[in-house]
């Protein structure tokens, strides 16, 4: 899939997220800390009034300024740039309402359109409440699958990685009921996931030969097939298939002994069978620093590792650290994509600013 890359001067697009969640709180607090934290410039896509109301409630003096994406870098020093998108949202903090879903979705759609047009360097998404969107008829499990759909990704399954300096993990199956995990846990899924992880960790994260550790589905990785056959019949053949392609895949390993400090020195990322098997360890180790990254997309997308935290929205207790790390990582990965594109295709890289200008005029 060709990469979308914006001129290095383009800002990051941050989607508003669920208007009743902590997305507005952490966006405002990140902007307040922009100078001391040396944050890359970003603009929010969504309803500017949500941010104005939240700033007033939190007692934050943040000038919220509607602008075009191209003005965001210049504007960022003195105001929080907002690119208007979608309908007004009326939800109070902690209380999503009927305007929540459409507003959250429009903010994501706008961010994607802008990155695809080369008008944003990458997208960072604030948390959405899945149940609120499902109630509104949203048919994708989460951002990960929705973004892959918008990007026209050919992958059988988009890849979610939660990355932190301490530990990086990928759940092979994502937001599905536990009762359905075994049915979705296939050799093809693991091989596809391993390939996408190996490619993005090499090309975007700069690891020469990423080491992928596969978790077993069963206790003790099945104990040679005596506690469930899946790890002998699915996980091991998937690891061997990846090894034949030259990918450094290892396992299956029992999940219970894969996350202690010495074990973590033996791999770059864990590919687990299901969501909680691998997200619980990384959130325990690095809740404030971990970042959700979607792998295999033609543009960069990161997100804080946490959710909408309705219990503390609008109270001033929301910690913006994970969003700050998500902004930093998005900038780093987008710059890596732009450098790679310039190396592999200098003519295209040179034409990119003209293409983006044409897209703006269109
Ligand atoms: N990327 C996304 O869009 C994500 C969305 N979600 C959604 O979030 C909603 C709530 O999910 P929960 O499981 O309750 O997880 P949550 O992460 O929203 O909250 C769990 C606990 O951590 C606290 N917390 C979370 N972020 C915090 C922060 N930045 N600073 C201080 N405390 C924080 C909350 O107050 C709560 O006590 C769900 O609807 C879920 O679908 C969950 C994870 C990621
Ligand atoms: N638990 C992670 C999560 O819910 C994030 O999902 P996504 O919206 O990034 O697909």
UniProtKB/TrEMBL annotation:
A divalent metal cation binds at residues 175, 220, 275. Its main location: cytoplasm. GO terms for biological process: pyridoxal phosphate biosynthetic process; pyridoxine biosynthetic process. NCBIfam families: pdxA, PRK05312.1. Its cofactor is Zn(2+); Mg(2+); Co(2+). It comes from Ancylobacter tetraedralis. This is 4-hydroxythreonine-4-phosphate dehydrogenase. It comes from the Bacteria. InterPro entries: PdxA, PdxA_fam. Substrate binds at residues 143-144, 283, 292, 301. Homodimer. Catalyzes the NAD(P)-dependent oxidation of 4-(phosphooxy)-L-threonine (HTP) into 2-amino-3-oxo-4-(phosphooxy)butyric acid which spontaneously decarboxylates to form 3-amino-2-oxopropyl phosphate (AHAP). The active site is located at the dimer interface. HAMAP family: PdxA. Belongs to the PdxA family.
């Amino acid at each position: 899939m060709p990469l979308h890359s914006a001129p290095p001067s383009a800002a990051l697009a941050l989607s508003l997220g669920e208007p009743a969640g902590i997305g507005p709180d952490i966006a405002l607090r990140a902007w307040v800390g922009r100078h001391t934290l040396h944050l890359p410039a970003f603009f929010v896509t969504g309803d500017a009034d949500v941010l104005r109301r939240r700033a007033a409630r939190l007692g934050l003096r943040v000038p919220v300024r509607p602008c075009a994406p191209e003005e965001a870098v210049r504007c960022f020093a003195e105001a929080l740039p907002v690119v208007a998108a979608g309908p007004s949202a009326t939800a109070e903090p902690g209380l999503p309402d009927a305007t929540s879903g459409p507003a959250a979705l429009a903010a994501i759609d706008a961010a994607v359109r802008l990155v695809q047009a080369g008008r944003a360097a990458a997208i960072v998404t604030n948390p959405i409440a899945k149940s609120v969107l499902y109630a509104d008829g949203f048919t994708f499990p989460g951002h990960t699958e929705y973004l892959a759909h918008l990007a026209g990704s050919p992958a059988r399954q988009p890849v979610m990685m939660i990355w932190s300096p301490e530990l990086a993990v990928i759940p092979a199956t994502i937001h599905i009921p536990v009762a359905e995990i075994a049915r979705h846990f296939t050799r093809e899924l693991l091989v596809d996931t391993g390939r996408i992880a190996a490619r993005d960790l090499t090309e975007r994260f700069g690891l020469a030969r990423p080491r992928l550790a596969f978790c077993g589905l069963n206790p003790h990785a099945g104990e040679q097939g005596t506690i469930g056959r899946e790890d002998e019949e699915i996980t091991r053949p998937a690891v061997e298939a990846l090894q034949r392609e030259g990918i450094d895949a290892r396992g299956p390993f029992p999940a219970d002994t894969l996350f202690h400090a010495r074990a973590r020195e033996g791999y770059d990322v864990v590919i687990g069978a299901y969501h909680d098997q691998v997200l619980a360890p990384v959130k325990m180790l690095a809740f404030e620093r971990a970042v959700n990254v979607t792998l295999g997309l033609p543009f960069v997308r990161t997100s804080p590792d946490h959710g909408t935290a309705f219990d503390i929205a609008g109270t001033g207790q929301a910690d913006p650290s994970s969003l700050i790390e998500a902004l930093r990582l998005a900038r780093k990965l987008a710059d890596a994509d732009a450098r790679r594109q310039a190396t592999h295709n200098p003519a295209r890289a040179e034409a990119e600013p003209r293409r983006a200008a044409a897209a703006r005029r269109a």
